[in-house]
Amino acid sequence: MGAGCTGGYEVKYIDEFQDPELARRLLDDIHAIVTRPWALMEVCGGQTHSIIRHGIDQLLPDGIELIHGPGCPVCVTPLEVIDKALEIASRKDVIFCSYGDMLRVPGTGRDLFQVRSEGGDVRVVYSPLDALRIAQQHPERQVVFFGIGFETTAPPNAMTVHQAKKLGIGNFSLLVSHVRVPPAIEAIMQSESCRVQGFLAAGHVCSVMGTGEYPPLAERFRVPIVVTGFEPLDVLEGVRRAVRQLERGEHTVDNAYARVVPPEGNPAAKAMLADIFEVTDRAWRGIGVIPGSGWRLAERYREFDAEHRFSVTGIDTREPVECRSGEVLQGLIKPHECEAFGTTCTPRTPLGATMVSSEGACAAYYLYRRLGTTSGAVIPSGTATMAARTSGSAGSTSEPAPLEGSPVV
Ligand code: SF4
Q1: Alpha-carbon span 396 to 381, nearest angstrom
Q2: Does residue 106 have its Cβ closer than 6 Å to ligand 1?
Q3: What is the pLDDT of residues 234-282, one digit of tens each?
Q4: Which of 48, 354, 357 to mutate to test the pocket of ligand 1 (most atoms within 8 A of CB)?
Q5: What pTM, to 2 d.p., does this model score?
Q6: Which residue(s) pair with 40 in the sheet?
Q7: Tens digit of pLDDT for each residue in 131-175?
Q8: Of 7, 156, 235, 374, which is the most buried if we count CB atoms within 10 A?
Q9: Where is the composition biased (Low complexity) (predicted)?
Q10: What domains, with CATH codes, occur in the chain?
Q11: Relative to the CA of 355, which ligand 1 atom is closest?
Q12: For residue 2, how many other CB atoms are within 10 A of its CB?
């Protein structure tokens, strides 16, 4: 990682982006700027985890609220697509490949782990190219890769379809549920219940797509949008720049993650996306259909579309009535305000995807906080926080319970 500039403080190595002294100086800057309450949304689940893990929200001035956004790819994959995955993975002729996080995401009544325990050939892979390799090794079987996620994970999936076509691997297909951030920001701002006054945009998404899609949104909704990274100092710098704009009455796009995000993004990845995918309306779990918010395979690659290949129909989806993840994903409630949080819903017995995913807000609150639930139960404490370190208290050093599966970004 190259040298970066965080609030005028030069840092070079990753652990310096967690330095409590630099964090204290950034916090002092934020406290000096703020004159009134502001509500900011961090778009990405990775940022949410950094905020909760390090206690950043507890260090900000009173009245600065961080609303957790819908940027967790596992969480927003619609139930109907999960149920289609379960149907396809149950077929005898199929090897179903997925990142590990998806195996515990509840569909209607079961998950991919259960399909595997019932004899389905469900395999955890770390790249879509692993799935393509499996397809080459097993020409007699159909190999399906579960292609979910934001603009960050779409390019390798697009590249894999490109390779499959080039190599003539006809037994490979992709179950696609890709989503795009800018239409989600638009939908959030158009919601009647929206309280968001500024955004911390997801840095890794912008490293692919650049920043060009955001100025029209900042202008139309008169909100500052600050491209922000994931380490504690990155988040604090994003907050500092967003609050500074709000206090000045400004609403521009500001790149606070320039060490990773060039304004134009990654032209090669964008060209690959434009070739393989086309924009489509997409349902977000717990939120509903957002126009133009997804990608599907373009017509000329339809032969690699698992939905097209397996024609899975007759899906009858049922969400658990007690799960309020839709409200969590829209920032309308905090996870511990859900009655099931920490009682009937835990990472080991998740009712919703936001408790499963390594980027889900419910999992973050469960792993890193000691919070009384609405039913009076108390959940375990998490790791030592930056809040503890900057305030000089010992904090907890107990390790959080690990989530199973590999991270999906
Ligand atoms: S705590 Fe569990 S039941 Fe409640 S919203 Fe989160 S995932 Fe759903």
Answers
A1: 7
A2: no
A3: 999 999 999 999 999 999 999 999 999 999 999 999 999 999 999 999 9
A4: 354
A5: 0.86
A6: 66, 198
A7: 999 999 999 999 999 999 999 999 999 999 999 999 999 999 999
A8: 235
A9: 387-398
A10: 4-72+195-255 (3.40.50.11750), 75-180+265-310 (3.40.50.11740), 325-391 (no CATH)
A11: 7
A12: 6
